[in-house]
């Protein structure tokens, strides 16, 4: 019980770190559906791994989806301090693996491309941030400390520290230095091709 309480406190602290709108720990506990979804997932995942409890695990995860707008399959493996900001529309598939200190914004999909029983969902390393509406499909691996831009569609592996934008997503981390054509160059954001 003490371990559960400690993990819950970690989640509340993570929410406060990631969300400047959070006014108090009590507000997070009572009004953050992304946090609630993660808490319910921990129970559902434990049931999923127990013999004979897969159906109750699925039913619990669907109930959490109804309450929070976040669908996390009970088979997904989630690390510590995952923060789902706003939550609504997030989908995390059965074989997805999420590292520690990951942040997902609303409408993120960690989806599969295969119908076979295999690793078919993404793996996110530690400290990955995935922007609103981004979709990561298939058994791709996103390296630690990477950022996925809002609306990006990722279908290929990305190294640690990647900055992924566009459809299909491409890694702009090599352009992240300073100077002409870099992410810090104001002209970079005027290039209409950057989002396609």
TrEMBL record:
* Stored Pfam families: Hexapep
Protein EC: 2.3.1.30
Q: What is a GO molecular function of this protein? A: serine O-acetyltransferase activity
**SUPFAM superfamilies tied to this protein:** Trimeric LpxA-like enzymes
Its UniProt pathway annotation is:
Amino-acid biosynthesis; L-cysteine biosynthesis; L-cysteine from L-serine: step 1/2
The record ties this protein, via CDD domains, to: LbH_SAT (cd03354)
Keywords, alphabetical: Acyltransferase, Amino-acid biosynthesis, Cysteine biosynthesis, Transferase
Reaction(s) catalysed by this chain, per the record, are: L-serine + acetyl-CoA = O-acetyl-L-serine + CoA
Highest rank taxon of the organism: Bacteria
PANTHER family, per this entry? Answer: SERINE ACETYLTRANSFERASE (PTHR42811)
State the NCBIfam families in the record.
cysE, EPS_EpsC
Q: Which family does it belong to?
A: Belongs to the transferase hexapeptide repeat family.
Query: What name goes with this protein?
Result: Serine acetyltransferase
**Naturally occurring in which organism (per UniProt):** Herbiconiux gentiana
């Amino acid at each position: 019980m003490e371990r559960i309480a400690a993990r819950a406190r970690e989640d509340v602290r993570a929410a406060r770190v990631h969300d400047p709108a959070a006014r108090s720990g009590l507000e997070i506990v009572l009004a953050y559906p992304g946090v609630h979804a993660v808490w319910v997932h921990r129970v559902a995942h434990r049931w999923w791994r127990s013999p004979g409890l897969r159906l109750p695990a699925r039913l619990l995860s669907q109930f959490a989806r109804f309450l929070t707008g976040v669908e996390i399959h009970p088979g997904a493996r989630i690390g510590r301090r995952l923060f789902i900001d706003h939550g609504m529309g997030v989908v995390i598939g059965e074989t997805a693996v999420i590292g520690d200190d990951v942040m997902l914004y609303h409408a993120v999909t960690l989806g599969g491309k295969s119908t076979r029983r295999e690793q078919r969902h993404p793996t996110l390393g530690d400290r990955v941030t995935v922007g609103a509406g981004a979709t990561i499909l298939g058994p791709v691996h996103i390296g630690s400390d990477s950022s996925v831009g809002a609306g990006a569609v990722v279908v290929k592996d990305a190294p640690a520290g990647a900055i992924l934008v566009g459809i299909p997503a491409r890694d702009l981390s090599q352009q992240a230095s300073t100077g002409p054509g870099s992410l810090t160059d104001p002209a970079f954001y005027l290039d209409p091709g950057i989002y396609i």
